[in-house]
Amino acid sequence: MASEYPEYVLGRVIQQERELYQVVTDQEDYSARVSRKFRYGAERPSDYPAVGDFVLMQCVNENDIAVIQKVLPRKSQFMRKAAGTNSVEQIVATNIDTVFICMSLNNDFNVRRLERYLSVAWDSGAMPVIVLTKVDLCDDVDTKLLEIENIAIGVPIIETSIVDEAGLSQIYQYLKEYHTVAFVGSSGVGKSSLINHVLGTDQLETGGLRNDDKGRHTTTHRELFMISGKGMVIDTPGMRELGMWSAQDGIDHTFSDIEELVGKCRFSDCSHGNESGCAVRQAVKDGLITEERYRAYMRLKAENAYNKNAVDYLAAKKRKFKQIAKLNKHNYKQ
Predict the structure, then answer these.
(1) Do 247 and 119 touch, CB atoms closer than 8 A?
(2) Is 136 assigned to a binding site?
(3) Which of 60, 236, 288, 325 is 20 to 30 A from 148, comparing alpha carbons?
């Protein structure tokens, strides 16, 4: 697609601070903003450039602010509901091949949260890998591993420790030329420490443990780093909450054990509540599925459906007002 626009320069977004982007090209690095035409044509937040995007832009020289005209089609995007009460989507990273879901084995350990991350990761189009950090602080690693394996069937798991460098060598098998890996997870799980190890320098600020045995939040923005001959890594801010945003396929994949049972329910529109002949509820009664996993499945389904309805409504509302503005402009000219 880039060859169709010889007047533009191809670049990749490596950092974003509000409405200003840092874009790297084959020749120079640029600060850039989206054009007015781009801004007018964007219907939702996810239409705007994000870290990892390939963009076409106009550049005068390296000291000027470049103007982004187009975002090339994405092969993957990790998207969540933005923190807060408003139904607003937020792109975390795009064009990623592998998602490292980082979770520490100290007091931050939470299987239900991991199910959320897996659902969003599967839906993104990238391949998830679970990276367990701070193994040296855990006395029952095998027990927690079993919990994870029961809800993340087939997903690779890497056990790591920055203190004694355990498992860090396994990280490198995912780092290869033209390959992008995004590190995601809660605040303070050790993402920045892992990336510093990969980069071979203390480029990112890291924080020690707080009094409650949880890490300190240090990353404040998303940023892509290039490693010569080993592809690219994306650091993301820690997320205390990860809201669902149109992640139906990812939820179905993460809870494939429950989805297999759905087809066995007596009624095709079974809500898996109190209906007779519900195969899902029967599996819970028989101990094949835990009550906690069943409730997590139902909660994520409901949350995802609510946000899907919200985004459809907002998109239709914006299209309506654009049509009204266009009509008013036409009438004014007449």
Answers:
(1) yes
(2) yes
(3) 236
